[in-house]
Amino acid sequence: MKTIGITTTVPIEVLIAAGYKVIDLNNIFITSKDYGKYIELAERDGFPKSCCAWIKGIYGACLENNIKEVIGVMEGDCSNTKALIEVLNLKGIKTYPFSYPHSHSLEDIRVSIDSFMDLFKVNMQQVEEVRKNINEIRELAKKIDENTYKTNKTTGFENHLYQVSVSDLNGDANEFKRFLEEKLKEIEGRKPINKKVRLGFIGVPPMTADIYEYVEEFNAHFVYNEVQREFAFPRVDKAKDIYEQYYDYTYVYNIDFRLSDIKKQIEERKIDGIIHYTQAFCYRAIQDIVIKNELNVPVLNIEGDSINSLDSRTKLRLEAFIDMLIDIKEAAI
Are residues 109 and 135 in the same domain? Predict the structure, then answer.
């Protein structure tokens, strides 16, 4: 089976229908025990220090794992992807474009996905058959998410990991489905996690995944992971076809569209405070201005760089933020 790398969530239904094994290069990078080597490789090849660690990690993961074909999202995701694709082309890697149109028009989405299907020589019937199978996996991820905030049995890290993994189905849809089925049974048999503060995590998935375990030391629990949840397409049951599914994918469109769903989740999950994670040198950090103005719960912005664990300053800020949320809750009683 041919292997193809992706730089972020794309219509994998098209790629699987075309006979590819899909690998999310982000997941290869961040789960590596020696993730730093990917960043170092990119910097040796000329990537500047003032470039997002994710972009450098994707580049290094692609080269080190001998990925010969890559999908680059040219509109709707990272603004550095275009330059990344140009460098990958220079290295002899075959690249394909995909775009989430800025217009957020269903008709423009249709044109973009149709072009993607034409590029890989598959038709709508083939793609919809694959989508039907993948949606069964997405439903399992949705149940795991529901166990995070309804029964409080899924940890914040598990919620993050299993939803983010839906982007490429861990490279094997059937095996991943079996894994989630077993994990769901295990989760449902647990006792609830009883923490005083309910947190939401918005923004790009973190390099500092230890944040989930760390907040639990201070009587807090993440019950919502915004972008990871979007990777799992939680509203897919309402989409009649692949066009509507990717039209309803919030993260890649304008901030107002994202915020409308974030606000719903804050209310439904009874969230006390939001952690807004941004990556150093990323334009999305500027959106923190809008986010803090629009949300009606306290928001703490933390920034990651090239280290995969929380630094001392960030730990202190998180502790102080949680203490403040506890004081607010106690004062309201």
Answer: no
Dihedral (C-alpha) 313, 318, 321, 326: value to the nearest 10 degrees?
A: -140
Q: Are residues 111 and 155 in the same domain?
A: no
Tens of pLDDT, residue by residue over 109-131, are: 999 999 999 999 999 999 999 99
CB-neighbour burial class of residue 60 (10 A; exposed 0-12, middle 13-18, buried 19+): buried
108: number of Cβ within 10 Å: 15
From residue 145, give the alpha-carbon distance in Å to each of 41, 206, 247: 36, 18, 22
Does residue 226 sit in the same domain as residue 297?
A: yes
Q: What is the pTM of this model?
A: 0.93
Tally of domains in the chain: 2
Going by C-beta distance under 8 Å and a sequence separation of 6 or more, which residues neighbour residue 169?
12, 22, 134, 137, 176
How many Å apart are CA 23 and CA 10, to the nearest integer?
Answer: 11
Range of the domain at 204: 124-332
